[in-house]
Amino acid sequence: MRDWSHIATLQLLENWRRCGVGKIPRSSAEGVERACRWLEQVRLESGVESADLMGLVSSGPQSGMSVERSVTAAPPVVSLSKLAGIPQPSSPSIPPPASSHPETSSTAGNVPVAIPAKSPVAMPIIVGSSDEGRWTESSLDVGGRENRFKILAQDAAACRKCTEIVCSRKQTVFGVGPVNARLVMFGEAPGADEDRMGQPFVGAAGQLMDKILTASGLSRNEVYIMNSLKCRPPNNRTPTEIEVENCRPFFEAQLETIQPEYIICWGAVAVRAVLKTTESVGRLRGRFHQYKGAKVLVTYHPSYLLRNPDAKRLTWEDMKFLMKELGIPLPAPKKA
Ligand code: URA
Distance between CA atoms of 175 and 202, rounded to whole angstroms? Predict the structure, then answer.
């Protein structure tokens, strides 16, 4: 058996698993063997070269339409007849972002997403260095997203890559909120309260974030809240670059699953994780950047705001900028 075929099969199995298919025998030699034989046959029947086959297994429908992914949790299907050049009916169209965030859909235990449809007023977008302006994968329906999150959260809980952190963490803090949120709050890492409760942003910084959300006309349970790290670094120290990279597969899969329209990066660690830049928050705030299909706004971390209350004014400006783009009017200021 050829090497490429083995690697391609493993990637295919991994893709299925990430799409929420839980019953592929990932470690079963017999299953892998059978899938390898199947792929080899696809290659022989279709005449597609090994490199092309690798491409269609590892990338999304954009790469050449050889992989058809259902918008539900079904696994990607390699179309043999398409590979063999037999004309196909047109592929199912991928719903636009608005319909992938239906206002009526909700998640178990979560409230429906109430953020209204996008403002017609287009704001200037400065494309960042990070990505190409669209999501890599087709969007999943709510059930598919929840299935995928269950598996990802289990994988995160089983992760032992960051040896120092693993010894001190009480539990992993995966993320919370509707899986179809339009807006993601992206923070740094859990602190002591989050480590104890298993939820992001529930300590002092989280309470300030809640206040900022409320003042902006949003509520905590209509946004998805997550961190770059799923575990608390000892003594709340800043996560190392290696730790952020160890967690990258988790947070990138989370973002790819939610496919939010907007991400707020709270603080420099979040910025480094999402936009892959060490540029300061001060230089990056005040405009949109791009992470795949999402517009990214950068602002100060709530912990920084607690230590530097003067900077709250700047974060408030950032929120007003975002709310205008979202088309959500700010609540009237409370009378004294
Ligand atoms: N700070 C963060 O960045 N994330 C949390 O979850 C809590 C505090």
Answer: 11
